[in-house]
């Protein structure tokens, strides 16, 4: 491909050099540049991509996209024959460049985008299961992993950068995938990662406190999320029981978009009634504009009913009938690290769950409270270099809804462990029953030793994660495997 083809529909200020120069790949990280690559300089939060132009050229870059003109450019043009393109916003340009480079693959399949604070991973997996059971070829992009027709690809991000994203869509098109279901994080919407994704369906789950380190307040957090619903071509599926969902509904109603609402009341287009919740499954009557009938899911909790309603709404929009929905729902298995049970012969219910926000923790503990016969023992911590405002709130929720709490490390990353734990303790009344054991292994061990028959041990915050980040080191760590090992002894 040549540079001119890659720049289609991109508003740039100026090209310095030959616009037909050959481009074999695109890259926003100089360390990964190869021969004849286009390097896009991004001014980041930690450093500035413009600092690495020489590095990229040394590695073989044939062209460079810049947001600001630096002194060295003329030298690189003359000495290295490198072409420069000056744009207004590199992140926006990167998104279009990535889509152009892979020939706009997201237009060649159906894309469902799921956004909201909690439930994205769960919903994408539920939709994926229902569709696969009905012989759809599926793609999945999200926190746990990416998938193309059942083949699993590792990921380190919920929503990848535009280059990785369009590369994945391209692979999906090559593999004749019909529907890709993807998680759309607020960071990705704000940082233009998904600007050029052709979404058919958008789903809103809920909005509660998280990521305020990045977004600063709930208003701008919501404003990032709402962007998705201006981008969809077929339908937007909104949980209007959620306060922010209702606001989003009222706002997007004004634009020409088809909306399906879901929730637990008859004002919604798709809703659940006559709910029966047990400790390991729930059942309810599903009402849709075209059909209704009883649904049973083998995942507990009211929040899971919301997740399944969102998933059914998406499948309904794709044209699945009741029998197809039922067939899909019957094959649903719990999602890894989401209310996942750890088997044991001691009669304790050990649950590993990814609750890392106040709302998620409250939901999971309320669900447990609904069926527990013994004590609730909760082990949790909070991630470093993430929203610190949620820490005391989670401390309060954990101690109020549990009988005993062990506060431990999550992924401290570059933050001091004691600082994170002190933030959590600020929300806890000193009369509450809790202890601090920083080492997560020891904390889980203590909880399991303390538990008796009929007790529930909730290990929250890391769910499916197979690592723990302390400082800049990444250690192997898996809550479920640790619990299994301790319980085996
Ligand atoms: C806040 C955020 O999203 N930051 C992203 C942002 O980082 P940044 O702007 O700080 O980048 P930077 O480190 O300053 O570097 C600037 C540029 O210089 C480049 N560089 C840097 C060094 C070098 O030697 N050569 C070079 O070219 C970098 O590749 C980058 O393009 O741009 C980088 C590249 O574009 C991303 O990798 C980085 O994601 C970081 C790793 C991250 O942790 N993001 C999290 C918060 C995130 O996105 N989370 C959401 C989900 C959360 C949820 O599920 O709720 C997600 O979608 O995963
Ligand atoms: N609909 C929901 N409402 C509230 N809490 C939920 C809901 N679904 C799941 N949860 C809780 O939130 C946790 C995270 O769920 P999930 O991984 O599906 O969310 P996510 O939106 O993908 O999160 P992330 O932003 O980290 O990717 C679960 O482990 C559970 O505790
Ligand atoms: N996607 C979320 C996951 C948090 C999980 C928790 N274990 C942590 O590390 O903070 C984030 O990056 O904020
Ligand atoms: Mg997720």
TrEMBL record:
MF terms from GO for this chain are: ATP binding; magnesium ion binding; UDP-N-acetylmuramoylalanyl-D-glutamate-2,6-diaminopimelate ligase activity
Could you tell me which InterPro entries the record lists for this protein? Mur-like_cat_sf, Mur_ligase_C, Mur_ligase_C_dom_sf, Mur_ligase_cen, Mur_ligase_N, MurE/MurF_N, UDP-N-AcMur-Glu-dNH2Pim_ligase
**Domain Mur ligase central, chain residue ranges per copy:** 114-314
Question: Binding positions for ATP?
Answer: 116-122
Recount the PTM note: Carboxylation is probably crucial for Mg(2+) binding and, consequently, for the gamma-phosphate positioning of ATP.
Which residues does meso-2,6-diaminopimelate bind? 386, 410-413, 461, 465
Q: Which HAMAP family match?
A: MurE
**Protein task:** Catalyzes the addition of meso-diaminopimelic acid to the nucleotide precursor UDP-N-acetylmuramoyl-L-alanyl-D-glutamate (UMAG) in the biosynthesis of bacterial cell-wall peptidoglycan.
State what protein this is by name.
UDP-N-acetylmuramoyl-L-alanyl-D-glutamate--2,6-diaminopimelate ligase
Supply the source organism for this entry: Caminicella sporogenes DSM 14501
What gene does this protein come from? murE
């Amino acid at each position: 491909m040549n540079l001119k083809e890659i720049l289609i529909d991109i508003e740039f200020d100026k090209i310095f050099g030959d616009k037909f120069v050959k481009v074999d790949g695109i890259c926003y990280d100089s360390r990964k540049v190869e021969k004849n690559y286009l390097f896009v300089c991004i001014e980041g939060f930690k450093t500035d991509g413009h600092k690495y132009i020489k590095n990229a050229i040394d590695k073989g870059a044939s062209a460079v996209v810049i947001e600001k003109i630096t002194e060295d450019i003329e030298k690189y043009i003359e000495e290295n024959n490198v072409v420069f393109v000056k744009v207004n916003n590199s992140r926006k340009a990167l998104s279009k460049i990535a889509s152009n480079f892979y020939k706009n693959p997201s237009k060649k399949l159906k894309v469902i985008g799921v956004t909201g604070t909690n439930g994205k991973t769960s919903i994408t997996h539920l939709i994926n299961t229902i569709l696969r059971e009905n012989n759809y070829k599926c793609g999945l992009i999200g926190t746990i992993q990416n998938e193309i027709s059942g083949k699993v690809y590792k990921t380190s991000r919920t929503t990848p950068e535009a280059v990785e994203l369009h590369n994945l869509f391209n692979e999906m098109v090559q593999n004749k995938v019909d529907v890709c279901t993807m998680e759309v994080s607020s960071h990705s919407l704000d940082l233009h990662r998904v600007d050029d994704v052709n979404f058919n369906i958008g789903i809103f789950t809920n909005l509660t406190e998280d990521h305020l380190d990045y977004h600063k307040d709930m208003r701008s957090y919501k404003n990032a999320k709402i962007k998705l619903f201006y981008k969809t071509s077929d339908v937007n599926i909104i949980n209007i029981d959620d306060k922010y969902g209702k606001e989003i509904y009222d706002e997007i109603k004004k634009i020409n978009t088809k909306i399906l609402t879901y929730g637990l009341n008859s004002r919604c287009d798709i809703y659940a009634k006559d709910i029966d919740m047990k400790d390991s499954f729930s059942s309810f009557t599903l009402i849709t504009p075209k059909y209704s009938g009883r649904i049973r899911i083998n995942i507990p909790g009211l929040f899971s009913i919301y997740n399944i309603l969102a998933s059914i709404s998406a499948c309904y929009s794709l044209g699945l009938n009741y029998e197809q929905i039922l067939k899909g729902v019957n094959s649903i298995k719990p999602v890894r690290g989401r209310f996942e049970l750890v088997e044991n012969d001691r009669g304790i219910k050990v649950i590993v769950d990814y609750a890392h926000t106040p709302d998620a923790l409250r939901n999971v503990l309320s669900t447990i409270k609904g069926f527990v016969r013994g004590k609730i023992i909760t082990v949790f911590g909070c991630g470093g270099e993430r929203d610190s405002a949620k820490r005391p709130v989670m401390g309060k929720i954990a101690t109020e809804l549990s009988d005993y709490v062990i506060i431990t490390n999550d992924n401290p990353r570059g933050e001091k462990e004691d600082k994170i734990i002190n933030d959590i303790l600020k929300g806890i009344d000193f009369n509450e029953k809790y202890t601090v054991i920083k080492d997560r292994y020891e904390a889980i061990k203590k909880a399991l030793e303390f538990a008796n028959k009929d007790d529930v041990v909730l290990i929250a915050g890391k769910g499916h994660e197979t690592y723990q980040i302390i400082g800049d080191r990444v250690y192997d760590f898996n809550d479920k495997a640790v619990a299994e090992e301790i319980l085996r002894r």
